[in-house]
Amino acid sequence: MCLDVQGDGTYHLKILVPSVASGAIIGKGGETIAQLQKETGARVKMSKANDFYPGTSERVCLITGNVDAILTVLTFVMEKIKEKPDPNAKVDFDGKNSADREKQLKILVPNSTAGMIIGKAGAYIKQIKEESGAYVQISQKAKDQSLAERCITIIGE
C-alpha cells in the first residue's frame, strides 16, 4: 500500500481523514502536525479545509517517510479519528454508512496498482481478509477516468 518511489526506503501513503478529525491532527496553528513530523521524521501533508476527495467530505492526508515513521503517524491519525467521531456521518461514496468511520482506514492507491492488491480473481484481497479478519473493499474505477486513484476501505478493530 506504501509506494517506495525513490528506491531509498522512503514511502508514500495517501489516506482519507474526516474533516472533524483534521483539526485535531493539524492542531492550533499547525503545532500538532509540526510536532508529529519532528518526532517521527515523516512528512505529513493535509489537503486544504474545503478540498475534499471527490464524492466524500474527507480530506486527503499524504504521509511520506520510512515504514516505521509512517506507521507511527498512521496510529496517531487513527487515534484522532476515534476521538472525533463525525456528527454528520452519512453514506459514503462506497455505499457504506460512515457512522463506524472510527473503525475504518481509507487508503488511496493509483488505478495502476489496484489490480496487484486485488490479485488474480481476487485471490490476494481474499488472503488479506482471511489473515487479518478485516473487511476490505476497493472502490470501482471511475467510469469517466476522472480519478487516477481508487479507495481501499479497511474495516476492523
Report on this structure:
This protein is of the alpha+beta class and 157 residues long. It has one domain: K Homology domain, type 1 (Ribosomal Protein S8, Chain: A, domain 1, 2-Layer Sandwich). It has helices spanning 19-26, 31-40, 67-83, 111-118, 123-132; strands spanning 11-18, 43-46, 58-65, 104-110, 135-138, 149-155. The protein has a 6-stranded antiparallel β-sheet with strand order 2-3-1-4-6-5. The chain is globular, with a radius of gyration of 15 Å. The two termini are 19 Å apart. The model has no long low-confidence stretch (mean pLDDT 87). InterPro entries: KH-I_NOVA_rpt1, KH-I_NOVA_rpt2, KH_dom, KH_dom_type_1, KH_dom_type_1_sf.
Key features?
5 helices, alpha+beta, single chain, KH_dom, 157 residues, Ribosomal Protein S8, Chain: A, domain 1
Poorly predicted regions are: none
* CATH superfamily caption: K Homology domain, type 1
Could you please say which CATH topology applies here?
Answer: Ribosomal Protein S8, Chain: A, domain 1
Strand order of the largest sheet: 2-3-1-4-6-5
Global Rg: 15 Å
Helix content: 25-40%
**Any idea how many domains?**
1
Under the CATH scheme, which architecture would be assigned? 2-Layer Sandwich
* Distance between the first and last residues' Cα: 19 Å
Q: Count the E strands.
A: 6
CATH class category:
Alpha Beta
Strand count, sense and closure of the main sheet?
6 strands, antiparallel
Tell me, rounded to a whole number, the average pLDDT.
87
Number of helices: 5
Structural class: alpha+beta
* Global outline: globular
**What series of H and E elements makes up the topology?**
EHHEEHEHHEE
Give the amount of beta strand, in percent: 15-25%
